[in-house]
Design a protein that fits this description.
366 residues, alpha/beta, 6-stranded mixed beta sheet, two-stranded parallel sheet, 10 strands, 42% helix, globular
Amino acid sequence: MTSCSAAMLVVLVGIAAMVMVVPPVEGGRAFFVFGDSLVDNGNNNYLLTTARADSPPYGIDSPDHRPSGRFSNGYNIPDLISQAIGAETTLAYFNPELKGEKLLVGANFASAGIGILNDTGFQFANIIRIHKQLRLFREYQRRVSALIGEEQTQTLVNRALVLVTLGGNDFVNNYFLTPVTLRRLQYNLHDFSRLLVSEYKSILLELYNSGARRVLVTGTGPIGCVPAEVALRGVNGQCAVEPQRAAAIYNPLLIEMLTGLNQEIGSDVFIAAKAFEKQYDFINNPKAFGFTTSKRACCGQGPYNGIGLCIATSNLCKNRDEYAFWDAFHPTEKANRYIVRSIMEGSEEYMAPMNLSTIMELDSRV
């Protein structure tokens, strides 16, 4: 074989390899996840932090019955969204299996313990704060560009679905962490909520400038009603008043900001997923959803199983489907399924300006 023929063969092999690795077609769009423990698929397993879910009984109801780093007894919200849209589950960005064609499925950058503010979750030390998550997203795009080229990478990102879940930790692991905190000395609840929403807007704009064009943004759930807050601050088993007031102030401000941001951009890029409303439905009326309790966690210790971590020696319920909460802060898989159903099919009471099924239908026409 001549040197010229050999060189041509190398070029052809290189082109063939590039052709074989292409972005997923519609119906298998990439999915990117940013946020905290509600959506972490295991990134913190690779970090020196106490904010981890990599030991039993976490994952007890997952297909392999093993802990994966998800703060759930089974599937979490990103898993269930992937299933609902017919996509492969996204891997944690730090998972060593995330390479080659697996990158084209998307990636999960979420990290338990983080918030909108950099000082949120300081007690957990080594976690992936949101601005680092965004830097990793840009690193991800460089890795994919090496596979399929910059133009195809931009198309993949522009067509992708993005989920962002932030805000809850800024209240429970910052503002309300102790009876006296720096943020409580600096701000009343209204001003603190405005600060969070202002910072959140900057984060979302950075995400938009990185190519995201369909972004689900969740508000905080009824944070005063999680077992940890009921145990620590509730009276006679009732939801803690101040955290509930915080959610009632913050969520409308967030929706107002998202509406304004879409108007500035001139497109419905950001979709508000109103987590408070759906979670409050089954907290208010657990029996209507097949739960026996929405106050007591399945796994934990102390009042309402709301004190400390879920560990091997914790109290553990036998039937997880009877509980709205898995541990002191996080919903069970069954509760997550109700939340994702509202994301997929919910009316404007739960999703604004449209639900995910409508988004998928509209985007399939493009």
